[in-house]
Write a structure and sequence with these properties.
125 residues; mainly alpha; 7 helices; 81% helix; globular
């Protein structure tokens, strides 16, 4: 494990997904899942999310579309919250999800709209 890349990834991961969520994920990892936590933190967050080519906002927008296409509701919930932290507006999320309806299918977009609405309601509460 590259400690410098892991630490950079941990910082970005906490900023986007929330420190409580990330710290709990790592703290609750066991012998079976800790390697995945290290992999995700070091490579996903430390190698890719720290690159200068795209803003965190743009990366969040791309993730919303990809997670809708892949039908990954748990990850979509996390990344919708992260997108809001990264400055993606509700209107931009709506437009992303409308775009996914055309290219990923209406059922995928309907589910993602439902999930986004739940997140918005919980964030507004």
């Amino acid at each position: 494990m590259n400690n410098e890349r892991f630490e950079a990834g941990l910082e970005v991961r906490r900023a986007v997904l929330g420190a409580d969520y990330v710290d709990n994920s790592i703290r609750n990892a066991d012998d079976f899942t800790i390697s995945l936590q290290h992999l995700v933190t070091e490579y996903c967050w430390g190698e890719v999310w720290t690159r200068p080519g795209l803003s965190k906002k743009a990366r969040s927008m791309i993730n919303i579309a990809m997670l809708t296409a892949l039908n990954r509701p748990h990850e979509l919930k996390l990344h919708l919250r992260g997108a809001l932290r990264n400055g993606v507006t509700k209107d931009e999320i709506k437009e992303i999800l409308l775009q996914t309806a055309i290219y990923c299918g209406v059922p995928a977009a309907v589910d993602s709209f439902r999930i986004a609405q739940e997140i918005f309601q919980s964030e507004d509460a």
